[in-house]
Amino acid sequence: MKPVAFPLIPILILFITAFSCSSNSSKPRKPVSSIAVQPAKNNYVFGEKVSVNVKTKTRDGQIESIKLYFNNTLIKESKELDFTVENVLIEKLGSGNFTVEAVKTDGLKNSRLLVINTISDVFPEKFTYQVVNTFPHSKTHFTQGLEFYNGFIYEGTGEYGTSGLFKTDLRTGKTLQSHMLADQYFGEGITILNDKIYQLTYRTQKGFVYQLSDFAVIDSFQFKSKEGWGLTNDGAHLIMSDGTHVLTWLNANDFSVVKTLEVANNKGIVNYLNELEYINGTIYANVYTTDLIVQIDPDTGKILSQINLAGIINIYKNNQDKIDYLNGIAYDNKTERLFVTGKLWPKLFEIKIIPSK
User: Fold this and answer.
1) Span 169-209, pLDDT tens digits
2) Phi, psi values for residue 13, rounded to 5°
3) What are the structural domains, with CATH classification, of the chain?
4) Model pTM greater than 0.85?
């Protein structure tokens, strides 16, 4: 064998490598876009207008279209590699997004996403309370949902093994009717709509529907939120909280999601929304682990006011009482009475809301 043959091998390798690199460099490239919002801020304010600039780079080929979306709504389509959209109105609280999708004539496409945060333009009014009446409340009820309906208090309770649904006499606190959940369910919020009681559970993503007259279980449903917390209705839809800053509207017949709404004040989103009550066109919500009830605009998610109930239970509890957090809002539409209570509290209160000094 002739020794001169061996030097040909590295030459062949170099040729193959060079050919490979040449092939890769000719491979079509995706377009690359960028999004810039002016003015640039950490938080935008509901109702503010901004300018959005889109720039797109292509190394080869021609652009077929560039589409700019705001919260999934198309706001401009163009073939320009650099364009600006003026006066984009921000009307969604919490997390929003601008998305650009660039498509070349060869079909290759790419997208970019820019997330923005939006706070409310409303400074919530601040209120405190005046106790009008007190009523007995079971110290064994871990209150998760509260309703006043046709002269009676309806209550959904939590904790594994003791969760249930109760109808009680307001004046005496006596239980008139009850239904206990199976031990694997942790009961959560309730609401009454069209002679039915709807009740959420905590982490099983399951709810129950009862006949109002006798608490017979007539249906059950699944929901997508990881957790069920508070529940109310606007006369047509169920409205639920899940422990975050998001409220979800459900179709009361098939339980499909109608809409979701992020809740925020003038400082940012407000998490831990818990027990809910729909009162005169707005939603009242307990903020879990606090003494606050917030009033929410159901169209925008803006917090309109907050009620501080600090100290309301203090003189009514004994040292041996194992009370938990404020949770429970009920409203008598006929007499405009507002009731509140808490988990394991010995009292239920009728209160009047008054401005803070």
Assistant:
1) 999 999 999 999 999 999 999 999 999 999 999 999 999 99
2) -60, -45
3) 32-119 (2.60.40.10), 125-355 (2.120.10.30)
4) yes
